[in-house]
Specification:
This protein has about 375 residues and is an alpha+beta fold. About 40% of the residues lie in helices and about 20% in strands. The C terminus is likely disordered. Keywords: Nucleotidyltransferase, RNA-directed DNA polymerase, Transferase.
Length: about 375
């Protein structure tokens, strides 16, 4: 099936099928998506990090990460790639480099080692094509499409090498509340915990965060008949191997912020049994479930955390995918206050979490 659309709804609500107009609407929309207007000062970020108990790597782990790159590591990264995945702007899939490895080996290794030595790569190699994948059966606007970046294989190898290095340390530096992309942790852990916690007498909010795509110092291209380039300024790039790990490092700060609020007695999560631990949140990549006591202090503390994190990280709440769910005896007025304060819709049940139904009970309105 070919992913193609013949018309799009403009920002004013009217439809257009003019190709040039659709092209410009796409560029306009994604430029806005990839721009963070209110960039925080580095000092403010440093102050936040200093106030949190953020896990750090050891001196030996730091030395291992900074060790010189070997030819074997580059070759391993290339041959771990699927050969037939969609190529980047140069049109060359991983299969080409794998098939002719003996021919391109020396030049490819020299190029990649040069990047790690100098921190510089030709902008032409770092250009990215964006392909749009529909989020639903009837997409109308560009917000209904998920932008996937198609990178050149040389850039993918660089990113893959970094991923291999990072995998070894992720388990020790990422909070146990996060179960995505960390070796030894499974999606089923989040599903089972969410199902158990959903039955507890507390309030929880399902907060699916919008991940904005990014290519640092790269050009993105919207293409059909030709290319239209633009320079992204924020977000992370969906489609390259490193993006999930970069996202986990950022979202780990949100987890640390929530833990600090718990330690300061400003946020109260759900307790697992009489002597069990309290849990305030579960994460699987960008899917987050927050559990908190339904009172003004907890609601205000959570709002403060989400606002501060959004301002410093640039990851904003996706109101279309966020819901607030409360136990039946929560006063209706406070339900409306929570919904208004957190900027999320109310619902009677969580329904599906990570593709699995975890709460089939319907609460009273």
């Amino acid at each position: 099936m070919i992913n193609k659309f013949t018309r799009i709804r403009r920002f004013d609500g009217e439809w257009t099928n003019d190709y040039l107009e659709m092209e410009m609407l796409a560029i306009q929309y994604f430029k806005e998506v990839y721009i963070h207007d209110n960039k925080p000062h580095r000092r403010e970020i440093d102050q936040l990090l200093d106030s949190l108990e953020v896990p750090c790597i050891t001196e030996q782990e730091n030395l291992d990460l900074a060790a010189a790159l070997t030819d074997a590591e580059i070759e391993q990264a290339l041959f771990l790639m699927k050969p037939n995945k969609a190529p980047g702007p140069d049109g060359l899939p991983a299969m080409f480099f794998q098939k002719f490895w003996l021919v391109v080996k020396n030049d490819l290794i020299a190029c990649i080692k040069s990047f790690f030595d100098r921190g510089f790569i030709l902008k032409e190699l770092n250009q990215t094509m964006i392909t749009l994948i529909p989020k639903n059966q009837s997409p109308e606007q560009f917000k209904d499409f998920c932008p996937i970046s198609l990178c050149n294989v040389i850039v993918k190898i660089i990113l893959k090498v970094l991923v291999i290095c990072m995998k070894a340390i992720m388990e020790t530096i990422i909070a146990p509340n996060q179960n995505g992309f960390v070796k030894g942790r499974a999606i089923s852990d989040s599903i089972l915990l969410a199902s158990e916690l959903a039955s507890e007498l507390m309030t929880f909010i399902h907060n699916a965060r919008k991940v904005k795509a990014r290519c640092d110092s790269s050009n993105n291209a919207m293409c059909d008949n030709g290319f239209l380039f633009f320079q992204p300024q924020s977000g992370i790039r969906q489609g390259d191997p490193l993006s999930p790990y970069m996202f986990l490092l950022c979202s780990n700060i949100l987890s640390c912020m929530l833990h600090k609020e718990e330690q300061d007695k400003k946020l109260q999560g759900i307790q697992f049994g009489r002597r069990g631990p309290r849990i305030s949140h579960l994460m699987y990549a960008d899917d987050t479930v927050l559990f908190f006591k339904a009172d003004p202090q907890n609601c205000s503390s959570l709002k403060h955390i989400l606002d501060k994190y959004a301002r410093l990280a640039g990851q904003v709440l996706n109101k279309d995918k966020s819901i607030v769910i409360s136990i039946p005896n929560t006063p209706r007025l406070f339900k409306r206050i929570m919904s208004s304060t957190l900027g999320a819709k109310t619902s009677n049940k969580l329904g599906k979490y990570l593709g699995v139904k975890v709460d089939n009970r319907v609460n009273s309105a």
